[in-house]
Amino acid sequence: MGAHRSIPRWHRLPARLLTVAAAVLAWCLTVPAEAAFLGTSGNPANGLSVAAAWGTYPQATTAYGASHYYRNEQSASSSATVAATDSSGNGSNGTHNGRTDGALSWHSFSEGSGTSAYDNSGNHLTATAQGTTAWATGISGNAVDFTGNGYYKSTSPVDTTQSFTVTAWAYLTSSATGSPRTVVSQIGTDSSAYILKLVYNSGWRWYATMPRDDIDNPGNDETYVSATNGTPTNQWNHVALVYNDSANRLYLYVNGSGNTSNVAKSNEWNATGGMVVGGARWAGIGGVGASYLDTFAGRVDDVQTYQRALSASEIDSIYDNPGTAYAPFTAQRTGALGGSQSSTKAIAYAGTAGTYTPATQANPTTFSTELWFKATGGLGGGLAGFCNTQTGAGASVDRVVYLDSGGRISYVVNTTTLRSPSAYNDGAWHHLVATYTSTSMVLYVDGASVANTGSPAAPENITGYWRFGGTNLTGMSNRPARDYFVGTLDELAVYPGQLSAGAVTFHYGRRNT
Description:
This protein is mostly beta strands.
């Protein structure tokens, strides 16, 4: 029997694509520095790729032959799971394991030290302490402790002209005096668009307030609703302010019990001066370097904001499960790509769930995983990996890339570990590629190799699924505080071959086309 001669792929192209293929090949041959090579299980010696001819980042991804490509463009959804649309052309839609209408900010105050409170929603709105603050035991883990002259401030998370929700746990100390005590507010130039506070009126009572204009001392020109029952000191209480713009109603929830106001706002204004935990701006007081009015005396924990009006049942769920994310993903975040691609979106991951591919794959021994990530703080988490289960811990995990608590990246295949010399938890977008063949294992960040070996261990023989955003990291060196990633992910891809250094560099350069 004669030797089998495989037919070159371009001969198998449909007739209507032959002209395009010929033009692409000619272009690559005239630009050899940008011609990319792929090593695949069927072509370990590397075969010529024409992907470099494509101008945009997504075009290059598909031309390089991605088997799975999830762009994370999904809209916010309250479904229990949400489809991750496959843009590779293979119809291999994945799944986001949870609803995608999550928080815009979530300050759990879990740090327990320092002056920074990181945003666990994955949206990177770090809050910074000013004045006198301390740490104490919270409703879940740690909490920030205010003595009456300190606060934490972040960038404004919500647009206050639209529907929004803010929730928090608060513990007022018995030493507090009769002045109002603010848990959280979002400030403008002279006033605050909302204030969630305690007011002393024959006992402490919760108030949700929305001044109608950003003016010096709005006085009675405000919408407010107060709790019907008093609030005792020296115990934790959950409180939520909900503004429903379409219904023009303001809601206040205390420990799951709701009170409503139907007083319409005369004007809407967007408070862009920042979110303040522990104080409010009023009558122009609270400028740069200044203290804020009605500062809190006691502990505050688990402050969350949403760009929608949460329902009573959703508020109850947050109240019943302190210290947990109500939704594991927040969709429609600003994406990693720029230039003509700058309108693309990404998804924020809150460190509790991930994204997975639909069908099992038997023991991939040549592969590349690729994504863009943005992280802040010290929680870290899994970025990509291969597991025998789509969700949960799984019994077998390998081919893992993760961000440790110090911001450095580890890439693990069986007993071989590569680690980046630099940290990348700086709040900027970074391009990550992890490639593997039996003779080459390379970790790339931002288009350049940062760690590699020519003698990697053989991958564990696992039949399973590719996962993004988290998997079981038990036993991994430099294991982060979270197995699931806290930050933003975009442009998730898997390739059945090893992307070359030239391909990675070229693809990274397609970011701003």
